[in-house]
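Example for tutorial group B:
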């Protein structure tokens, strides 16, 4: 008898339908599985217990990552059930900081492609190639060209770990079904000489494409997506500064897309600022920000902060004057002739100041925000200075992975006598100080982008706007409880992230309906509709 792909061993190798040892006796008979599995039938809960026990026996985070990715390849329901039930423990494994190492070693550990690779050799054929993906109702695409992976730089085709990880969080954190998700890497070469000279490197071993050829490939890709997957959101991820801003500015008016490094980071940081105001008792208008780093993240945060101030009646010029940037050369100011276009709106009419410490002492900011990718650049002198003119200094050390953090949570707390309101990009453990346990917040974009994507999908929004990210920021801050704030933590626990994502989705959809951006009519009960479409990993 000829077996089909829905029977026998083929079924056990279909990760979206495989239940492994949870196939019932009847299912084993019906699908010709008898003898292919050990006889005992396990529940999903028992399988979860086995998996998490095995994860905890692994010696290093990268071993845990590889084990979980192996599970993803075998049984997606079980993978997502384990992740959702152990979110705080496993998010640092499937995403930052461990995903950084996973990307660096992606070629060495490569077994199966978890997404699609579109290379410059595919020009002219991209729409046809997208048709090779087994699922056709794609709603969310995360695409990278691998040029600026976290704070690690140009990782080329090895950057695939980022779209894969982001989409795992879309499913786990916001319930977007995995069959609606597509990770994509645009392989346009790499300027990383280590990879170019590595015989095991999985990507094109040639210099990175620039200029008109790159733009033409991106244009073909976006156009092909709109034809092949007309309901899909495109999330641009980890493109270099020279491309990220201009691609976002061009495509945001053409299709439903956003850049998480610019807009997602901005929203989670603005949410952290809103939450910090509940601790300090001050207003948004009272805030002055100093940024270390003037790339995608920093400019994105400042732009959203300016928008929030404008909504409160502050003029754009006055709002921009509350944002001060320090890049690798020093203060971003009008004296300089070397500024890139995205920095110029924040160039102050001020003499040049060469160091971050001097800028902090000059400006006396209420918040210091690190998005530089440069570790240990928030020195003791800088943090202590923040503590001198703030009762509760806000210190956001947001660079990823952990090895790139501008300072640790313990340093921020100890150098301010436990007064700092601290958040980081990658997680830090709670710190005991003077008999009190202080819980650092993690300014993780996963608080924002999954809920935004869910909201856009729920209403069929035709565009993704900054107003939606501002609403997401306010919603995230509002879902942070007083109990969380009392520990110093300015974000809700990761265990509540699906609830938070549903509220963010509601806020995003409300904006879309208000602005007449929706393809779908408004349901009678919008929140009920959002919960109804959320994927909950259970065996059918």
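The residue assignment follows.
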């Amino acid at each position: 008898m000829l077996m089909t792909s829905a029977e026998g061993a083929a079924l056990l190798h279909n990760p979206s339908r495989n239940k492994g040892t949870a196939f019932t006796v009847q299912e084993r008979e019906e699908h010709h599985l008898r003898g292919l599995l050990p006889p005992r039938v396990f529940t999903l809960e028992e399988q979860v217990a086995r998996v998490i026990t095995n994860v905890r026996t692994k010696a290093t985070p990268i071993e845990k990552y590889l084990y979980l990715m192996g599970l993803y390849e075998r049984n997606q329901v079980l993978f997502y059930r384990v992740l959702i039930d152990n979110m705080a423990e496993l998010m640092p494994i499937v995403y930052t900081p461990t995903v950084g190492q996973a990307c660096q070693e992606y070629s060495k550990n490569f077994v199966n492609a978890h997404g699609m690779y579109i290379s410059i050799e595919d020009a002219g054929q991209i729409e046809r190639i997208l048709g090779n993906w087994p699922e056709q109702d794609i709603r969310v695409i995360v695409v990278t060209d691998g040029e600026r992976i976290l704070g690690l730089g140009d990782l080329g085709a090895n950057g695939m770990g980022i779209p894969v990880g982001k989409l795992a969080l879309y499913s786990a954190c916001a319930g977007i079904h995995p069959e609606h998700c597509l990770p994509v890497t645009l392989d346009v070469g790499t300027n990383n000489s280590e990879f170019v000279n590595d015989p095991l490197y999985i990507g094109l071993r040639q210099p990175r494409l620039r200029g008109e050829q790159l733009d033409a490939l991106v244009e073909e890709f976006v156009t092909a997506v709109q034809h092949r997957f007309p309901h899909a959101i495109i999330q641009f991820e980890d493109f270099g500064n020279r491309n990220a801003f201009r691609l976002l500015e061009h495509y945001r008016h053409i299709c439903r897309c956003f850049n998480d490094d610019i807009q997602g980071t901005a929203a989670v940081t603005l949410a952290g600022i809103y939450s910090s105001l509940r601790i300090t008792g001050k207003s948004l208008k009272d805030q002055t920000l100093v940024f270390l780093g003037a790339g995608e993240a920093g400019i994105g945060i400042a732009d959203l902060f300016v928008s929030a101030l404008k909504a409160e009646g502050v003029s754009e010029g006055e709002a921009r004057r509350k944002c001060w940037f320090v890049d690798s050369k020093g203060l971003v100011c009008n004296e300089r002739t070397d500024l890139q276009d995205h920095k110029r709106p924040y160039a102050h009419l001020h003499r040049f100041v060469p160091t971050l410490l001097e800028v902090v002492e000059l400006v006396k900011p209420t918040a210091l925000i690190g998005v530089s990718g440069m570790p240990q650049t928030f020195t003791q002198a800088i943090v202590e200075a923040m503590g001198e003119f703030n009762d509760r200094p806000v210190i956001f050390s947001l660079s990823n992975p952990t090895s790139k953090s501008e300072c640790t949570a313990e340093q921020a707390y100890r150098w301010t006598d436990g007064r700092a309101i601290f958040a980081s990009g990658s997680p830090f453990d709670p710190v005991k100080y003077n008999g009190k346990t202080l819980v650092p917040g993690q300014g993780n974009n996963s608080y924002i982008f999954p809920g935004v994507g869910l909201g856009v999908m729920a209403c069929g929004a035709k565009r993704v706007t900054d107003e939606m990210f501002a609403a997401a920021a306010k919603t995230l801050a509002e879902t942070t409880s007083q109990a969380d704030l009392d520990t110093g933590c300015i974000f809700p626990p990761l265990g509540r992230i699906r609830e938070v994502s549903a509220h963010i989705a509601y806020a995003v959809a409300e904006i879309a309906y208000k602005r007449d951006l929706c393809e779908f009519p408004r349901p009678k009960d919008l929140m009920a509709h959002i919960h109804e479409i959320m994927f909950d990993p259970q065996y059918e």
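DSSP finds 24 helices and 14 strands in the chain. Compare this with the pattern of hydrophobic and polar residues in the output above.
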